[in-house]
Amino acid sequence: MYLALARKYRPQRFADLIGQPHITKTLQNAIKMEKLYPALIFSGMKGVGKTSASRILAKTLNCEKGPDIEPCNECSTCIEITRDSSPDYLEIDGASNNGIEEIRSLKETVKYKPLKNRYRIVVIDEVHMLSTSAWNALLKTVEEPPEHTYFIMATTDFHKIPATIVSRCQHFEFKRIPYETMEILLKDICEKEDIKISKYALHIISKSSEGSLRDAKKILDQAIAISNGDVKDEEVIDILGIIKEDVFINIIKYILSENRRGIIEIVNDLSERGVDLRFFYGEYLKFLRELIILKSVKDASSLININPETIKDINLILKDISDIELLRYFNATRELELTMRHTESPKIILEYLLIKLSYFPSLVPIEDLIKSIDKGKVSIPLEVQPVTQRVEPEIKKHHNQNENIHKEQNIEEKKAELNANDLKGILIRECDENPRLASDLGNSRFTLNNQDLILEFNGDMDMSYENVKNNLSFLQNIINEKYNKQFTIKPVLSNNSNREEQKKKTDEIKKDTKINKLADKIKGKIISVESID
Question: How far is CA 258 from CA 239, 244, 353, 359, in A?
Fold first, then answer.
């Protein structure tokens, strides 16, 4: 009868226990110092060595040449425990023996001394499955076990164990086994079994097992059975049900090169081969995650599930795209995930998404666009102009008369306007110890008419107007110290009719069909209307 790899290569010593050095060292020290706790909890995900550690500990305590920090695995006691035939090693399934009667029977058994060995070892696997009454019956025995008995409780759901039990036990948490460690172990097994397998096949088997060595050995067993001794990458991919990496790489190439025909052909091919497009969508999202990590993290090979042999080629594809842009691709894909999950037409949604992504390379970041405009390198047509570039001319057109801004303004008037703004900035900065006055100055519109500095307030800002008026001498001294010329500051309060006229014009701009059509086109909205000096 064929012996599965998980059983054939099961750890028989603490030194063979993979990925749990913190546990093996603690247990060995406790045995050496004769301070091993009588009740232990081994928690962790499936396939990380909880039951194997229990058997190794049982052999170490009862070894005829010990007890020592390792079992000899040669004496009759060690052999019996390895074969699960020892009368003093009890391995109980907590899921099928979870009632109070089973626990009462166990309590009666542990009262008596071991039949052959130094200690009786009781291992309750999946102990979290015990009923409440069973826990209550076990509580006293766990707290004060017979001197010749050790309890080991193994579980994949530690949080389900009652706090009263946890407080009476020593807890050991088993970690996921690193996939790099798993790769080395699987490679060693293949060499012993005379199996040919590629590095990539070992890589995806280790990654797909998600930290469970037992699962990794099971997948390898299946791959060996299919391949007849020469494991091919394609066979492992078929077993795991994953999509070939080349498909994702080609999709990225087509998206970045805007090859929409190639995109549609790939989707058609996937559909004709009967691939679950919803599953493919999720795998594509994972692949984008791998690209983001590869692009944004140095030495990311240990953090991603990509064939190490293709990383160099992928980096060449991604050399002209930033991690920010990759995040944009990821977000656009993630936004349709729920739609893809519930749609009756997954092919259409997948095609739509990938074609949509193929337009992203043509998009220009708004920051780059603004820089180009500032440098005078770009002239943008109205339909693609940023909102601020398109709305302001419309607002300016409606405010020309009210703000007295004309195309015929001469150089002197522009210079005067600039000086007025300079004066406004100086006055506000000098009022840092009087924040209210600075705020009131900010609410006014500065205009320089020869030697008169006019501060115009709207009709509803009478309090700001009065505050500035009461501080005229202070403001006048600031200006006179900064400039050789003598400026006369004149606060002016606009009448309400002018204010109503401004409100009317603001409402007209907000209702303007061209501006609203433009806002809808760019998916924007009008937040406020401001005059332009």
Answer: 33, 22, 13, 7
